[in-house]
């Protein structure tokens, strides 16, 4: 029986090195391109006609738009509208890569920590730059809890700094761990279907139930990533 972790292996399709850096085209690269193409087709195709009475496709695109716009409005306020393209792009890309990973014999891009950490680092660096651009050196006051006595600053400030620096780690590991664990569990249980013969119907029913749960988790992880991005932007704009 193949290892349940075999599905996460990176396979090189076109080896390439630039300046000693490996930039080969891999299965991860392929499925990221498929996800980007899928998002583009979904959004552009759904908004092509701009019908007054939207069809199913246009309705799905508008629901996606309203969903992210609502998150931004509730977490950041009207000031957050300018960051809609970033949050919407992150949400749709993660959602499509997660859903692509649910297709048998496909590849789950978000099961790779390097991918999720790159996305989380993009958010972290962008939010930090935004904070300094808006508040200049006053941004450092973010690490001083409001109302805390000066005597407690030596203890609280390092804790706040560590908490802030851990954001990209927690943001990336949450997405990576959920997708890795879920797909591994599905693979392990699916392995019992054939080996148990007639009694394999029990693990088959469990796999079907877990697949539904994994689809829900795939959506929830995209939602969590989007809403945490909004909360970090809100912190950078309004400080605490």
Question: What would your notes on this structure say?
Answer:
With 240 residues, this protein is mostly helical. The chain has one domain. Helices cover 67% and strands 4% of the residues. It has seven helices and four strands, in the order E-E-E-E-H-H-H-H-H-H-H. It has helices at 27-46, 56-75, 84-100, 113-135, 153-165, 167-195, 201-238; strands at residues 12-14, 17-18, 21-22, 25-26. Helix 4 packs antiparallel against helix 6 (167-195).
Brief description of this entry?
The protein has 240 residues and is mainly alpha-helical. It has helices at residues 27-46, 56-75, 84-100, 113-135, 153-165, 167-195, 201-238, and strands at 12-14, 17-18, 21-22, 25-26.
Widest sheet, order of strands: 1-4
Q: Whole-number average pLDDT? A: 89
What gap, in angstroms, lies between the N and C termini? 52 Å
Give the ordered list of helices and strands: EEEEHHHHHHH
Give the proportion of residues in helices. Answer: 55-70%
Number of extended strands: 4
Beta content comes to under 5%
Q: Which features does this protein show?
A:
240 residues, mainly alpha, two-stranded antiparallel sheet, two-stranded antiparallel ribbon, 7 helices
List the helices and strands and how they pair.
Layout: E1 12-14, E2 17-18, E3 21-22, E4 25-26, H1 27-46, H2 56-75, H3 84-100, H4 113-135, H5 153-165, H6 167-195, H7 201-238
Antiparallel strand pairs: 1-4, 2-3
